[in-house]
Amino acid sequence: MTYPTQPEASHFVNGRYVEDTDGTPMDVIYPATGEVVARLHEATPAIIDQAIESARAAQADWAALSGTERGRVLRRAADLMRERNHELSVLETMDTGKPYQETSVADATSGADALEYFGGLAGSLTGEHIPLPGGDWAYTIREALGVCVGIGAWNYPTQIACWKAAPALACGNAMIFKPSETTPLCALKVAEILIEAGLPAGLFNVVQGAGAVGAPLTTDPRVDKVSLTGSVPTGRKVYAAAAEGIKHVTMELGGKSPLIVFDDADIEDAVGGAILGNFYSSGQICSNGTRVFVQAGIKEAFLKRLTERLSTAVIGDPLDEATNFGPMVSEAQLGIALNYVAAGQEEGARLVTGGTRIDKPGFWMTPAVFADVTDDMAIAREEIFGPVLSVLDFTDEDEVIARANDTEYGLAAGVFTSDLKRGHRVIGRLEAGTCYLNSYNDAPVEMPFGGVKASGVGRENSKAAIEHYSQLKSIYVRMGAVEAPF
Ligand code: NDP
């Protein structure tokens, strides 16, 4: 192996790596081969306590700096991430199995964008002046929340850490981040880089472990906010635990998003959108458009081009730059996806291509496309989080909108059409937080990202994220005498 994957220690607390071998051992497995590439330990209560205490101790001084000073640190960190993109991308590939062709353009680079964007915004986070009758006035101050906890899913470990840390730190908070136990390596590098860029110790701590480590972080009274990226069932638990302490929350949860292709769509673009929205990262993306509604007139042509283009997927060594389809993250996630393939066949959907385990070490399957899927089938209702695309037929606009909205989820939605009036009209009626018109799954830092309905609460990225990592203090100023009734 060309790059070391064993970190100096399991956790990063108060500006340095720390270990506590009393914690349960956690093996890190390279999904492409099934080999153990690192061994870490889950955080013990002592490590969790050190992380919270150091965050609390550091936060007030950080918040007292000017926004420009805080922003300078984040922008330096963004530069370091870009300089080290190659090493960070290789590590992301080892952690997740995603091909280097993806990780080199979508992970550390996306993290750097967030650090740069929120670093740039930090100096302009101000309150407002509000003139009132009689010469009185009010003003508002935008204050940090305090100590924020970030809990990540395993699909984008670097990006998720940065999407949470960058706005939190820009607003003057401290963050304790718990990566998914499946992909624990990348967030440690984010911590190293932030410290090297000048972030004072204690402001970004990483503690490892499974849900049992996340849970005490969400209930600790010294924590002011919890931001989770994960599944809806976990979201329900974490939201409820945070509610007990009336904590702020951001919930970035799962989805079963519709991607609607009208028969006037550019077919190559629509097929391209469906590929990006189902097979990038081997389908392990929350916003994926896994219910592909295709209008009757274009259906067979769409399926033909989709299968033709899928047959050119390069499935192989994720570190080879030519590879564009990698393994699933774990044996468990592969099993879930293959079970859904079996369920789709049992329920009578037509398996057009793929959906079989590839017989080699690691967690590999071929990208699957189902046609003739109906709304009641499990593959059309439940989040699979794997490379399984379902094509559903439709005939008219009102019908497809009603069916697209008939789900508890509301993370994302896409529409492909050459009739732009129709495109905007349809998107206006779709119940989804993040929508795409003649595109799919773009996530620039300038654009808010998040869901409605069971898919979440709050927004990441963009100026909207500032609202979720700061709070307003209002001050009324009376300029005249105070008139009291007695
Ligand atoms: P999980 O919900 O299983 O886990 C998410 C994180 O929560 C993990 O770090 C997990 O720890 C932790 N966790 C689990 N239970 C608790 C608990 N009781 N208290 C605190 N933390 C807990 O999701 P996955 O990791 O399997 O990720 C896939 C899911 O994430 C999908 O549903 C996907 O849609 C969603 N997702 C949403 C995104 C969005 O932005 N909307 C983006 C990416 C993914 P551990 O796993 O280590 O036990």
Concise account of the structure shown:
The protein has 486 residues and is an alpha/beta fold.
> Overall 3D geometry?
globular
Ligands in the model, by name, code or SMILES, are: NADPH dihydro-nicotinamide-adenine-dinucleotide phosphate
Domain unit count: 2
Structural class label: alpha/beta
Task: Give the number of DSSP strands.
Answer: 20
Main sheet summary:
7 strands, mixed
Give the helix/strand layout:
Layout: E1 11-13, E2 16-18, E3 25-30, E4 35-41, H1 45-64, H2 67-83, H3 85-96, H4 100-106, H5 108-121, E5 129-131, E6 137-144, E7 147-151, H6 157-170, E8 174-178, H7 186-196, E9 204-206, H8 211-219, E10 225-229, H9 232-244, E11 248-252, E12 258-261, H10 267-279, E13 291-295, H11 299-310, H12 331-346, E14 350-353, E15 368-371, H13 378-381, E16 388-394, H14 397-405, E17 412-416, H15 420-429, E18 434-437, E19 456-457, H16 464-468, E20 470-477
Helix pairs in contact: 2-5, 2-7, 3-4, 4-5, 5-6, 6-7, 10-11
Bound molecules: NADPH dihydro-nicotinamide-adenine-dinucleotide phosphate.
Can you give a write-up of this model?
- This protein is of the alpha/beta class and 486 residues long.
- The chain folds into two domains: 11-253 and 455-473, Aldehyde Dehydrogenase, Chain A, domain 1, CATH 3.40.605; 258-437, Aldehyde Dehydrogenase, Chain A, domain 2.
- The chain is built from 16 helices and 20 strands.
- It has helices at 45-64, 67-83, 85-96, 100-106, 108-121, 157-170, 186-196, 211-219, 232-244, 267-279, 299-310, 331-346, 378-381, 397-405, 420-429, 464-468, and strands spanning 11-13, 16-18, 25-30, 35-41, 129-131, 137-144, 147-151, 174-178, 204-206, 225-229, 248-252, 258-261, 291-295, 350-353, 368-371, 388-394, 412-416, 434-437, 456-457, 470-477.
- The strands form five sheets. A seven-stranded mixed β-sheet has the order 14-15-16-13-12-17-18, sandwiched between helices. A six-stranded mixed β-sheet has the order 9-8-7-10-11-19, with helices on both faces.
- Helix 4 (100-106) packs parallel to helix 5 and helix 5 runs parallel beside helix 6.
- The longest helix has 20 residues, at 45-64.
- The protein is globular.
- The chain starts with 10 loop residues before the first strand and ends in a 9-residue tail after the last strand.
- It binds NADPH dihydro-nicotinamide-adenine-dinucleotide phosphate.
- The site of NADPH dihydro-nicotinamide-adenine-dinucleotide phosphate (NDP) has 30 residues, from helix 8, strand 10 and helix 9.
- Belongs to the aldehyde dehydrogenase family.
- Pfam families: Aldedh.
- NAD(+) binds at residues 152-154, 178-181, 254, 286, 383.
